[in-house]
Design goal:
The protein has one domain: 2-Layer Sandwich (Alpha-Beta Plaits). It has a four-stranded antiparallel β-sheet with strand order 2-3-1-4. The chain has seven helices and four strands, in the order E-H-H-E-H-H-E-H-H-E-H. By secondary structure, the protein is an alpha+beta fold.
Length: 137
């Protein structure tokens, strides 16, 4: 079993889609081993997305992620990272495959409903950023 990190972003949460996304997560066979609703500060969002600090979209991304509540999750499944990324779909909802979360719930490349780790090292950092070991069941 592998663990990955996932976010239901502020746009999807505000639109009332968190429950629908969670239902899909369970339906696809993931086990949710950690779950929190939180409201990231700008500083917390900047720390989380530090790898993008030099990218032109960094300010817009961190502003958006600190604009409203979101849901952070630790998911577990066989090949969880790939499986979650497949379920999310392409970053740009307009290019995402039918049936993916971003196609269904995303509205733009910036407000694309979900986030997921892209590699084991990223998952380890992201899980540790939001969860301590006692919070993961």
């Amino acid at each position: 079993m592998e663990r990955t990190f996932a976010i239901i972003k502020p746009d999807a949460f505000a639109a009332g889609n968190a429950g629908k996304i969670l239902a899909r997560i369970y339906a696809e066979g993931f086990t949710v081993v950690g779950l929190k609703k939180l409201y990231m500060s700008k500083v917390e969002a900047e720390g989380f997305y530090y790898v993008h600090k030099e990218r032109p979209f960094f300010g817009e991304l961190t502003e958006f992620m600190s604009s409203a509540p979101c849901v952070v999750m630790a998911l577990e499944a066989k090949d969880a990272i790939r499986k979650w990324r497949d379920l999310m779909g392409a970053t740009n909802p307009a290019e995402a495959a039918t049936g993916t979360l971003r196609k269904e719930f995303g509205t733009s490349i910036g407000e694309n409903a979900t986030h997921g780790s892209d590699a084991p090292e990223t998952a380890a950092f992201e899980l540790g950023y939001f969860f301590n070991g006692l919070e993961l069941l």
